[in-house]
Design brief:
The chain is 23% helix and 35% strand. With 167 residues, it is of the alpha+beta class. Strand 8 and strand 9 form a beta hairpin. Bound molecules: zinc ion (ZN).
Length: 167
């Protein structure tokens, strides 16, 4: 029998968001919900920027363009593991970052939700742009950089398009 509650991650995220909503400059909202994953967008932010969160521990901010998955911008993937005494940690973390938490909720909060909040504060700024590049071979890249780099990146032969992060 599986004791893990259904949609644990979604519930944990909702609860965490209730307590932390005021700290977001741009509100996350769930735009797609499935059994195993959900996707966030942020109000007032370029719609190409999405955050994908899966039950299995994939947690990534990525860019999508014309319905195509473009590239990961940042990720906070978690590989949850339970210790024999009931504590939780992420098996993907390097030994020096491996931290044990008293609950799954705390692991997800500290390992994923809080870093997401921090990332939004650092990247959702007036002067920031989302750059999309693609090579002839078909590989696609997304970057968030300051506006002053626009001229430089626009001159790269792989440059496709750019959007201000703030809509
Ligand atoms: Zn980790």
């Amino acid at each position: 029998m599986c004791l893990i509650p259904k949609n644990f991650v979604q519930k944990a995220f909702y609860r965490w968001l209730c307590l932390n909503r005021k700290n977001f400059t741009h509100q996350p909202r769930i735009v797609l919900k499935r059994k195993d994953f959900f996707i966030l967008q942020f109000s007032g932010i370029a719609q190409q920027i999405k955050c994908f969160i899966s039950k299995s521990g994939a947690f990534e901010i990525h860019a999508e363009y014309q319905k195509e998955y473009w590239d990961i911008i940042e990720e906070f993937d978690v590989f949850e593991t339970r210790t024999p005494d009931g504590r939780y940690y992420c098996r993907l973390c390097l030994p020096e970052y491996k931290e044990q938490f008293s609950s799954r909720k705390e692991l997800w909060g500290k390992h994923c939700f809080e870093p997401l909040l921090k990332w939004t504060k650092e990247n959702f700024k007036e002067s920031y742009w989302l750059f999309l590049l693609h090579t002839k071979g078909g590989s696609t890249t997304a970057l968030i950089r300051e506006e002053e780099e626009l001229a430089v990146i626009k001159n790269q032969k792989d440059f496709l398009t750019a959007f201000p992060v703030l809509k």
